[in-house]
């Protein structure tokens, strides 16, 4: 029997308890032994909860208990999660976490400690919730040079953009709806400003290139400026707006960004709607692969955390190598990124032609302005060409 401790009895922590209880027998069979929750660390008490007597408030009890072999971190945020996780590893305990903020910031260091101590630091649930993507990148796609990884990595914003598309609603109304349904946080900034997706693509890019990619260096644009009028134009083009987190290998290195994109019907992520997430991967020998599923939520995320626990229990004395060194990897200037641009302007046709040459005009029946799609060009070229025009809004298109 393996004894574990869970840090944080919120959505994910309680989900882990539920998954361990629901699939107790099959999990024990796959892990090779029973898994028992010995402690749950939380600031609160949970009177009446079946796990009430496991709840403690002092982390020292967990760190100092040699019986605890695995610590599950489900607190979220960088601190105190980082301090607790590092201490757990240094005390000889493997760790499974769902915390993208922790992994994006300190993943390389925590992996190095786990390697040194012959333990494991696992973080499948930190990207794409229940969708397996960390393990495939680390174990299954190792024959490839990954040339592109592009995902819809935030369920909240995908739900909001889908609702704007299907129901023609404005941003503020769908945000209220997402909050009422419990998808968006009370403070939804990290979702709608793209910060959540940014940390996730930083993790994926670090894994793909084997070096530390700092999330602060990734150009990030959220969905707060997307309006019902933009969606009207998107429909006129037969496209949909999606918040993409993307990383591409160029001859000079990786170029990463998070931003809303207009996707054509041919794009593999076109049909990914509601709270679902998907990750498209292109390898130089594999070609294309897609990973699709529930990217957020209690049980899907807990499913990935428990799968990590099982893997840890199966490899109690072996470190599973993860290629992610703390050596920093600079990114290619986003000004070099290529795409088409959809532009809304109140400038005249001649003015647009003078700036961009031939463009594809989009008629969405909107008064007092015109919309057009440019040819594919680098961001810096677009900025130069658009500088003389009064641009009402622009969205990248692929
Ligand atoms: N807020 C995140 C989302 C949760 O909406 O995708 C999962 O990381």
**Fraction of residues in H or I helices:** 25-40%
Averaging pLDDT over every residue, what do you get?
97
Number of domains: 3
**Overall spatial form:** elongated
Please report the total strand number as a whole number.
17
Proportion of beta-strand residues: 15-25%
Q: Explain this structure to me?
A:
By secondary structure, this protein is an alpha/beta fold. The protein has 3 domains: 2-129 and 298-314, Rossmann fold (3-Layer(aba) Sandwich); 137-294, Dihydrodipicolinate Reductase, domain 2; 335-397, Alpha-Beta Plaits (2-Layer Sandwich). 36% of the residues lie in helices and 25% in strands. It is built from 14 helices and 17 strands. It has helices spanning 11-22, 24-31, 59-63, 81-90, 100-116, 134-140, 155-167, 171-180, 189-192, 195-209, 228-237, 298-314, 349-356, 379-386; strands at 2-7, 35-41, 55-56, 68-73, 94-97, 121-122, 146-152, 219-220, 240-250, 253-263, 276-283, 287-294, 338-345, 360-362, 370-373, 377-378, 391-397. The strands form 2 sheets. Strands 7, 8, 9, 10, 11, 12, 13, 14, 15, 16 and 17 form an 11-stranded mixed β-sheet that branches. A hairpin with a 3-residue loop joins strand 11 (276-283) and strand 12 (287-294). Helix 5 (100-116) runs parallel beside helix 10 and helix 7 (155-167) packs across helix 8 (171-180). The radius of gyration is 23 Å and the shape is elongated. L-homoserine is lined by residues 129, 154-156, 191, 196, 295-296.
């Amino acid at each position: 029997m393996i004894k574990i401790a869970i840090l944080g009895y919120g959505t994910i922590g309680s989900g882990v308890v539920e998954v361990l209880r629901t699939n107790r027998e099959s999990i024990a069979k796959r892990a090779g032994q029973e898994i028992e929750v010995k402690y749950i660390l939380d600031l609160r008490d949970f009177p009446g909860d079946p796990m009430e007597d496991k709840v403690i408030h002092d982390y020292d009890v967990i760190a100092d208990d040699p019986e605890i072999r695995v610590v599950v971190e489900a607190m979220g945020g960088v601190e105190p999660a980082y301090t607790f996780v590092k201490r757990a590893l240094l005390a000889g305990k493997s760790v499974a976490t769902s915390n993208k903020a922790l992994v994006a910031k300190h993943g390389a260091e925590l992996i190095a400690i786990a390697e040194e101590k012959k333990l494991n630091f696992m973080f499948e649930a930190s990207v794409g919730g229940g969708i397996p993507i960390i393990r495939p990148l680390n174990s299954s796609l190792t024959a490839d040079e990954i040339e592109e990884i592009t995902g819809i990595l935030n369920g909240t914003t995908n739900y909001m953009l889908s609702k704007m598309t299907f129901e023609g609603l404005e941003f503020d109304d769908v945000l209220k709806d997402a909050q009422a349904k419990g998808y968006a946080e009370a403070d939804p900034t990290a979702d709608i400003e793209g910060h959540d997706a940014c940390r996730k693509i930083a993790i994926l890019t670090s894994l793909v290139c084997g070096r530390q990619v700092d999330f602060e260096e990734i150009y990030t644009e959220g969905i707060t400026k997307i309006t019902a009028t933009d969606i009207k134009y998107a429909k006129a083009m037969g496209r949909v707006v999606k918040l993409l987190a993307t990383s591409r290998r160029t001859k000079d290195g990786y170029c990463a960004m998070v931003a809303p994109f207009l996707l054509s019907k041919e794009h593999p992520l076109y049909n990914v709607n509601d709270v679902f997430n998907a990750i498209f991967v292109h390898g130089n020998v594999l070609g294309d692969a897609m990973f699709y599923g529930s990217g957020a939520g209690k049980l899907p995320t807990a499913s990935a955390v428990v799968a990590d626990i099982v893997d840890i229990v199966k490899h109690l004395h072996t470190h599973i190598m993860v290629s992610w060194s703390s050596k920093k990897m600079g990114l290619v200037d986003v000004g070099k990124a290529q795409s088409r641009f959809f532009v809304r302007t109140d400038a005249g046709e001649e003015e647009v032609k003078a700036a961009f040459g031939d463009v594809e005009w989009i008629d969405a029946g909107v008064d007092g302005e015109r919309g057009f799609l440019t040819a594919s060009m680098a961001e810096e070229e677009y900025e130069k060409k658009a500088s003389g025009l009064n641009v009402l809004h622009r969205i990248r298109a692929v």
